[in-house]
Amino acid sequence: MPRYAFEDFPVGCEIDCGSRVVDRDEVLSFAAAYDPQPLHLDEQAAQASVLGGLSASGWHTCAMVMRLMCDAYLLDSTSQGSPGIDNLRWLKPVRPGDTLSVRMVVQEARVSQSRPAIGLVRSQWQVRNHHGELVLTMEGWGMFGRREAGNDR
Amino acid sequence: MPRYAFEDFPVGCEIDCGSRVVDRDEVLSFAAAYDPQPLHLDEQAAQASVLGGLSASGWHTCAMVMRLMCDAYLLDSTSQGSPGIDNLRWLKPVRPGDTLSVRMVVQEARVSQSRPAIGLVRSQWQVRNHHGELVLTMEGWGMFGRREAGNDR
Question: May I ask the CATH class of domain A6-152?
Answer without folding.
Answer: alpha beta
